[in-house]
Amino acid sequence: MARTVKRSAPARRSYDSSRRQEQARETRRRVIDAARVSFLEEGYAQTTIAAVAESAGVSVETVYKAFGNKPGLAKAVFDVSIVGDDEPVPLMEREFVAQNKADPDPRSKLAAFADNTAGIAERTGALLLVLRTAASTDPGAADVWDQLQAERLTGMTFFARHLAEGGHLRDGVSVDEARDVLWAHTSVELWDLLVRQRGWSARRHGRWLAQQLIAALL
Q1: Do 52 and 34 meet the contact criterion of CB atoms below 8 Å apart?
Q2: Residue 25: CB partners within 8 Å, gap ≥ 6?
Q3: pLDDT tens for residues 4-51?
Q4: Which of 85, 88, 112, 149 has the fewest C-beta atoms under 10 angstroms from its C-beta?
Q5: Cβ-based neighbour number of residue 217 at 10 Å
Q6: What dihedral do alpha carbons 116, 88, 50, 17 form, nearest 10°?
Q7: Residues 16, 37: contact at Cβ < 8 Å?
């Protein structure tokens, strides 16, 4: 009687989760880049998920699965543009914020804040103007616009309280006033007036912001 030889099952290939995650992240980058170009060149209303998917080389289903809908995609584009990368680190946990909080010199704090604000405006200003225009007629765009403004107000409130707790605010300047001054100076409307309409460079914009904030708050 022939002897039956039991063969061992082939070793199962290990699942490379890190590779899959990097592939998913690269796909997300391509979609966000394609959406950014479309929003700037075509406008919010004319941008479609189908067109973004085609430009990014992915399926429509992939875009919907990753971002939910067009407002979700727009919010993702802004989130990446604000911080300048797609690292999963919230803005308030970024190294810049930690360094600014640790700086004992209020003038240096505001100068660094102003420089960072000018950089953010360079990356997001044109997109924000597109979204602001769309918000007047598109409920989804309006929701994203309101969310972005609320997040900015939260950030300005945090910084105003930090300045107050450090004893840096000039006598008579309350946390609320400091917040509102910061809010106004970080608005896309001010960036639009000085940089887009008057042709200021980002560097000049940042220097001017620092001068204004130091004079108004310290």
Answers
A1: yes
A2: 86
A3: 545 555 544 545 677 888 888 899 999 999 999 999 999 999 999 999
A4: 88
A5: 19
A6: 150
A7: no
